[in-house]
Amino acid sequence: MSISIGKGWAQLRQQTRSLEAQTDTLFHTYSRFASAPNIPPKPTEEEIRTETQIQELLEKRESLITQLNTLLTTDPSLTSSALKQNNLSLHRSTLHEHTQTLTRLRSSISQSRQRANLLSTVRADISSYRSSNPETAEADYMLDERSRIDRSHNVADGVLSQAYAVNEQFGVQREMLGNVQRRIVGAAGKVPGINSLIGRIGAKRRRDGVIMGGFIALCMLVFLYFM
Description:
Layout: H1 2-34, H2 45-74, H3 76-79, H4 82-132, H5 134-190, H6 194-226
């Protein structure tokens, strides 16, 4: 008898976990209706079907949890199992969470649809008003254009401010580099022989430059000759 009851517990738990996974998958689909940028004025067939499927899964899971609880309270071998108690508690918690998620998503979709319908109605009213009042429509158009121009000017002012700030930073950096250079030159003047060493390095660089320039000129002459 206990083996049969244990087998029934395992089967019910397996069914419950399977329905939980199906619910998660449907929530992924259903949540897209809440975040859609252009929500339709009325629920689509897919939206209605998905919501109905989620509701049916929640009801089936509630029935399975009731059966699990019945097994747990009627069989002494299951009642003494802390693991099974925790499993049942987890299934209940998950069901409660999914029920709240469905309520939240359903409310979010409804609010988004109401806002979209209201916005559509307002736009239709404005369009109708402008059609019946062409002078007002022209004035509104000029005001919109002025607003766009003002926004463009604000953007340009922001860019110029950033450019001035960058230019000021460059000036500060140049001044810092100049101070560093002066300190290096001052320090070099205090060290014996450093000026002559710097001079030799500069002369070597100039000599290398002359040699490299002569070599390049020679290569050019040879290239022109064979052409």
